[in-house]
């Protein structure tokens, strides 16, 4: 009976680990791992080389790898819908890529604008597309170290703005529900909304980031 009791306790503990909600720290760590993967994919696609990724950082695996694949797929669709919106972001924002402060402030300002009217998965995908587009610009302008700055900025934004929303949905795996239906037309409406919103406020954020004269 004692053996059975201990077995039951152990089984309950294991199930608790799988059933529990992810912690804030885990969600932020996963957000950054997804961002590194997304950026790396876009750098490869752009044909630009950069410094080796940081060591001892989590790489998407298991369920997170599936999330990363879906995030990239949705990003592909978003960038296909509005190909010019997520390219040459630094030029669109008219910012210098030689200053970490400028890059950080610009990214956080754009991120805040994306989610002004609420949070959706379409806007989350847009955030990652912005991060990757800006990272490609940085590497092309011989500022590869800025890639890690962008990843850290995204992680901090997730911690402050998206963690509560993510926890209500059980974590990043909730994005997999966006691709249950294979008909792309059924997903395009919220992706179009995200792309159009970003395209409109890029012009607005340009004036926000202009230095006072």
UniProtKB/TrEMBL annotation:
GO terms for molecular function: BH domain binding. Keywords: Apoptosis, Membrane, Transmembrane, Transmembrane helix. It is found in: Membrane. Pfam families: Bcl-2. Residues 71-172 form the Bcl-2 Bcl-2 homology region 1-3 domain. This is BOK protein. Signal peptide: none annotated. It comes from Rynchops niger. One of its GO terms (biological process) is release of cytochrome c from mitochondria. Belongs to the Bcl-2 family. InterPro entries: Bcl-2-like_sf, Bcl-2_BH1-3, Bcl-2_fam, Bcl2-like. It comes from the Eukaryota. It is a single-pass membrane protein. One of its GO terms (cellular component) is mitochondrial outer membrane.
